[in-house]
Amino acid sequence: MCLVLNNGAIDCVDLMASIDNGDIETFPQFVRYVETCIVGGGRVSEAMRQAHTAVHTSVQAGDPTPFKSFRRQEFVATLESMNNLPDDTPMAERLLQEITITQEVREAGLWLRERGCLVICLSDKPDEASAPNHPSLRDQPPIHRVQTHAIGVSIADALAALE
Predict the structure, then answer these.
(1) What letter would DSSP give residue 117?
(2) What angle do the packed helices 103-114 and 155-162 form, to 10 degrees?
(3) What is the pLDDT of residues 109-160, one digit of tens each?
């Protein structure tokens, strides 16, 4: 949506009117709307036209994830940003350069798992951006299995300080 709006393929006011009057209620309807604007308007670059064609083709095929190579690059970049700094890196620098987990969340998850709870994590990232689903990436772990640094206060230390 942002891509077609920012590239002038559609008009935001017209889009909002189509949503308000019920003409667009689903993402496939939005993609068809963009198709009519691009075909009828001719006001987009060839690169924008190609990007829309990739999305349109994927949606028609029932695949919600266009731009597969971009998503694979996102996966690799995410892995490269996890646990990539030495343990003694100052926190301020780590927060700027590394994807970390919150210590309190980490400890709560471990505590629940120790008690037999099933700990589930949900993400809106597509598979291509969160798991090694390409032959060139088969030796990589999925993102949820990557070790990274924890930032924050230990729950045990915080409780001890209260006593």
Answers:
(1) P
(2) 100
(3) 999 999 999 988 888 888 889 999 889 898 999 999 999 999 999 998 888 8
